[in-house]
Amino acid sequence: MDNIISLQKKIVPEMTDLLVERYRILRQISNEEPIGRRALAGHLNLSERVLRSQVDFLKSCGLLAYSAAGMAVTEEGIEILRDMEAYIRKLQGLSDLEQFLLEQLGISRVVILPGDCDREPVVKREIGRAAAHVLVSLLNGGKGKIVAVSGGTTLASAASNIRGNFPDVVIVPARGGLGDMLELQANTIATVMARHLHASYRQLYVPDSVSQEILNSILAEDAGIREVVDMIKRADILIYGIGRADVMARHRHLPQPFIERLLSRGAVGEAVGQYSDVDGQQIYMTNNAGLMMQDLPKIKTVIGAAGGRSKAKAILAASRAARQDILITDEAAANEMALLLEQEKKR
Asked: Are 300 and 314 in contact (CB under 8 A)?
């Protein structure tokens, strides 16, 4: 396959761009169906004229179906889309990029999805779907595992896409509540994930970023919360999202002068409540009853999931701050991380 791809790039390079474009169209429709042409053009940043010729071709091949509600991918289209994924990865050199990051960061496994979360929201859903697939593969063959999950849009996507039957598994939130969007909170995501896995779950009714004094008081007075916290600390698998330091600081409603000091000290990423610089050094840690960065070495399997070129430094920071076994990201973030790593070598 590698020789064929090499020849294709040299002799008919325009075929590569066309194949990737049609793959993106099919993938977007698959995630948004039914969808109209105008909305699809907006999502893909294509003109309606260009899009029309492509979707008409895909329809003529039997890969798309039109209806009053919009376009949808046919069963044959779904099979083609599934088969194309591996070829697109090879075509765009993602396997080589995975190997490079695996070696440079000391991670056991790296999974890279085509695209850029910053420009294509559908890619974030693809990362969530890939994270769900990885988690199910880890749960198969094991019994009585505890899975801790963080909050955020990527993990919400993982929860909505996961399926399985694991009645002896317990899903717990990795940390307490954060922000105002209930559907993106770790408690909610743990519940949704447990329902889709036919697993049990526990809730942690403690807000994120409380003072140490209040946290100690809650743990001293509430045996139920202590029991949940103990279970979280004994998690076998952690799957968590990674955020930019500035964005996550605003989500936690930290004072603006404090955010500016945080960034001036080099904080670029946040994961599990820890704000780190690009070398993984801790700049600031929030108080929380759940997992903290120092707990990660005790967990058997740690999975980080995040994408987007804008998060490249944040992902590097999280990967270096504590042991990470599996990283699931996208092409744009991976390319930017590779560039940053190469620049570091030259210094």
From this structure: no
